[in-house]
Design a protein that fits this description.
Layout lengths: L1 E5 L2 E4 L4 E8 L7 E7 L6 E7 L5 E3 L7 E6 L4 E6 L8 E8 L13 E2 L3 E6 L1
Parallel strand pairs: 2-11
Antiparallel strand pairs: 1-3, 3-8, 4-5, 4-9, 5-6, 7-8, 9-10, 9-11
Length: about 120
């Protein structure tokens, strides 16, 4: 499975961005896709995830109500709509996928990763 992330950029606090993650290859083996982020000097952290079968979504507490993860099956693409961005959202955002049959939040459970896209939010 190959993942291609896009959509990052430089925005001001309060602005919105939409990240995209296009999957290709053996996508039938993927059960869950997620977004993680890593800020300078910090560990990679979970942001949002979606179960592809049920469309059940999961969010890290700090982004609930501001970020929305969604999918387009026809395009094999997952999106992360980010609204009301804050400077603390600044990070490299990675999309990831796993073939695990149950929900997984840990980055170690994801075997497929995109290249990362930088989101910078200025105050």
């Amino acid at each position: 499975v190959q993942l291609q992330a896009s959509g990052g950029g430089l925005v001001q606090a309060g602005d919105s961005l939409r990240l995209s993650c296009a999957a290709s290859g053996r996508t039938f083996s993927v059960y869950t896709m997620a977004w993680f982020r890593q800020a300078p000097g910090l560990e990679r952290e979970f942001v949002a995830g979606i179960r592809l079968g049920s469309s059940t979504t999961y969010y890290e507490d700090s982004v609930k109500g501001r970020f929305t993860i969604s999918r387009d099956n026809a395009k094999n693409t997952v999106y992360l709509q980010m609204n009301s961005l804050k400077p603390e959202d600044t990070a490299v955002y990675y999309c990831a996928a796993t073939s695990a049959s149950s929900w997984r939040r840990s980055s170690g459970s994801y075997g497929y990763w995109g290249q990362g896209t930088l989101v910078t939010v200025s105050s």
